[in-house]
Amino acid sequence: MLTIDIDTARRFILGKQGLWPGRRWRGPQGTAQALREMEYLQLDPLQMIARSHDIALHSRVLDYQPGMWEEAAYKQRQFFDWGGWLATRPMDELPHWRVIMHRERDGHADVGTRIITMGKEHADAIVEMRDLLQERETVSNRDLKAANR
User: Fold this and answer.
1) What percent of the chain has pLDDT over 90?
2) In angstroms, what CA-CA distances link 87 with 23, 79, 84, 124?
3) DSSP assignments along the chain, one per residue
4) pTM higher than the cut 0.85
5) Residue 142, pLDDT above cutoff 90
6) Domain range summary for the chain, segments of one domain joined by +
7) What is the Cα–Cα distance from 57 to 133, expressed in whole angstroms?
8) Mean pLDDT of the chain
9) Which of 23-27, 34-38, 82-86 has the highest mean pLDDT?
10) Is the sign of the CA dihedral 12, 13, 18, 20 positive or negative?
11) What is the structure's pLDDT at 112?
């Protein structure tokens, strides 16, 4: 059995995530590479100082600017987003994820019905959001009117 010391293990894990020995990628192409190496980038619509996904990429990509991930994901179609915690994944993984997506959509016995029920209860809002995203590509919560804020 191969054994490694704790420092080597830490460097390996941090290096795989693009956090050691420092930012290794640069610009738009580096952003796409960082997304691949991270495997999942959780998208966060809330912005206090900056969105958490932009912070995660800024720590890995030299010259990163907010929105570079959107270029790679939505304009170049290199990544897709999906899941209860909305994460981006490489587009070449989509065929594998479709099996799970279809199970959730179709309400198989091994998948909870919460998503299906929510979809039925909020069908009008889902249609409205799809239309809005088709029109604008990205939408912030500030773009939406709320009854009580």
Assistant:
1) 50
2) 22, 10, 8, 24
3) -----HHHHHHHHHHHTT-SSS--EEHHHHHHHHHHHHS-EE-----SSS-HHHHHHHTTEET--TTHHHIIIIIS--EEEETTTTEEEEGGGHHHHHHHHHHHHHT-TTS-SHHHHHHHHTHHHHHHHHHHHHHHS---GGGS--S--
4) no
5) no
6) 6-90
7) 23
8) 87
9) 34-38
10) negative
11) 61
User: For residue 147, which phi and psi values (nearest 5 degrees)?
Assistant: -65, -40
Residue 82 near residue 41 (C-beta atoms within 8 A): no
Q: pLDDT confidence of 147, banded at 50, 70, 90?
A: low
Q: Which two tokens stand for residue 147?
A: 């009854």
Distance between CA atoms of residues 73 and 70, nearest Å: 5
Give the Cα separation of 70 and 53 in Å (integer): 11
- DSSP annotation string for 87-102: EEEEGGGHHHHHHHHH
Closest CA to 16 of 42, 45, 36, 44: 36
